[in-house]
Design a protein that fits this description.
There is one protein chain. This protein is an alpha/beta fold and 418 residues long. Residues 328-418 have low confidence and may be disordered. The chain has helices at 27-38, 54-59, 67-73, 83-94, 110-113, 134-142, 161-171, 184-199, 201-216, 221-230, 232-250, 253-266, 269-284, 287-297, 301-312, 314-327, 332-337, and strands at 4-5, 19-23, 42-47, 63-66, 76-79, 103-106, 124-130, 149-155, 179-181, 341-346, 374-378, 381-385, 399-402, 408-415. Helix 1 (27-38) packs parallel to helix 6 (134-142) and helix 8 (184-199) packs parallel to helix 9.
Length: 418
């Protein structure tokens, strides 16, 4: 049974007098930095000079500096950039300043597990891994909750590395929900396997095959999208809330019967398990890591070609059209990707948790007045883009929404088109 830790097991004072450098200010980086600072920790942010995140972190009030400067100044260095960029950055910008007595931390064990980063003997090495995206790490924190985390100690040079790691996780709010102890070895291998066999690789291929099967049989692609892709979230939400049994309780008996008789036909048990074991073997013996490292060194031709092909697949084309027709305007995420909008902050500065109290104050200038939606500011006016499971609240320059976990947070969004 894995060991669990909670707030009573963590002492934030272990970080007193220490400076934490958060390297990267993306989804996880901004959440870690803001939460730690709000917990009373001395935080600096290390970024690439001229990078797009630099002015965002400055606006949020942080002391922002280059990665070498941050590594030299910090006692604890948390690396929160993409896996494939970490090794080169570590060797060039961090290793020369990673002196004895310091600690280096990660939110994923890939580069430690596959020895792309090998810290010196005199430093602590630990993992603090929230099991949720950065915006949720931040949004739960600001309402007094937290996201469950994994903790692992890879190297305990100081003799109290676990205490430091637990204090760090308490600082980002994870101890409020619970901290499970593991190893960077196990976290890496199980995380990669889950992504490849089930969460990303498995589900995408299952949805693709279902969509193609219906379309090839003469059904409208819109129907195929709704039945095989759109409703996936609804089912997963039910499972996440109460398990498979609760999901089965919520669906029809016809659907549940179909699960029992047809599920094994789609995924034959023995063959599927054999395929999954082969995937796991590639992760365990380093085959996958070697391929991914080589892919990044050789220009990502395979990766980019598959990404481009997926974007052109009919399920993606039809899905995009349907989402725009349903919402009445482009999805927020698509607008951000196109560079039209930029999220500046994810934090509340006033208590607006009871969204229903504000329904009577929705300005008439808003194009729509859905109960579900995410408000974005565009061209100096407010426009409502409907997104399922998000609730609307009235605020001047910020927008309070509720996601399906009933956790409120605020997004400040501005127009970048000038």
């Amino acid at each position: 049974m894995a060991k669990m830790y909670y707030e009573k097991d963590c002492d934030l004072n272990k970080l007193t007098g220490k400076t934490v450098a958060v390297i990267g200010y993306g989804s996880q980086g901004h959440a870690h930095a803001l939460n730690l600072r709000d917990s009373g920790v001395d935080v600096i942010v290390g970024l690439r000079k001229g990078g797009k995140s630099w002015p965002v972190a400055v606006k949020d009030g942080f002391d922002v500096m280059t990665v070498p400067e941050a590594a030299q100044k910090a006692d604890i260095i948390m690396i929160l950039i993409n896996d494939e960029r970490q090794a080169d950055m570590y060797k060039q910008d961090i290793a020369p300043y990673l002196t004895e007595g310091k600690a280096i931390a990660f939110a994923h064990g890939f580069n430690i597990r596959y020895k792309q980063i090998v810290p010196p003997a005199g430093v602590d090495v630990f993992m603090a891994a929230p099991k949720g995206p950065g915006h949720t790490v931040r949004s739960t924190y600001v309402v007094g909750k937290g996201v469950p985390c994994l903790v692992a100690v890879e190297q305990d040079a100081s003799g109290h590395c676990l205490d430091t790691a637990l204090a760090y996780i308490a600082g980002i709010g994870g101890a409020r929900a619970g901290i499970m102890e593991t190893t960077m070895h196990d976290e890496t291998e199980t995380d990669l396997f889950g992504e490849q066999a089930v969460l990303c690789g498995g589900i995408v291929e299952l949805m693709r095959c279902g969509f193609e099967t219906l379309v090839e049989a003469g059904y409208e692609p819109e129907n195929a999208y709704f039945e095989c892709i759109h409703e996936m979230k609804l089912i997963v939400d039910l499972i996440n809330k109460g398990g498979v049994a609760a999901m089965n309780y919520s669906i029809s008996d016809t659907a549940e019967y179909g699960e029992y008789v047809s599920g094994p036909r789609i995924l034959p048990y023995e063959q599927t398990k054999a395929n999954m074991k082969a995937v796991l073997n590639d992760i365990q013996d380093g085959t996958f890591a070697g391929k991914w490292i080589a892919e990044n060194k050789n220009g990502r031709c395979f990766f980019n070609s598959h990404r481009d092909a997926l974007a052109k697949h009919p399920m993606e084309v039809i899905g995009k059209q349907l989402r725009e027709q349903i919402s009445g305007s482009p999805m927020l995420s698509e607008m951000i990707e196109r560079g039209r909008l930029k999220i500046l902050a994810l934090y509340p500065d006033e208590d607006l948790t009871e969204w229903r109290n504000y329904r009577d104050h929705i300005p008439a200038t808003w194009i729509n007045a859905y109960d579900a939606g995410c408000l974005v500011r565009e061209n100096g006016t407010y426009d409502l883009t409907a997104i399922p499971s998000l609730y609307l609240l009235d605020s001047d320059k910020r927008v309070l929404v509720k996601d399906c976990t009933d956790v409120p947070y605020i997004e400040e969004v501005i127009d970048r088109r000038g």
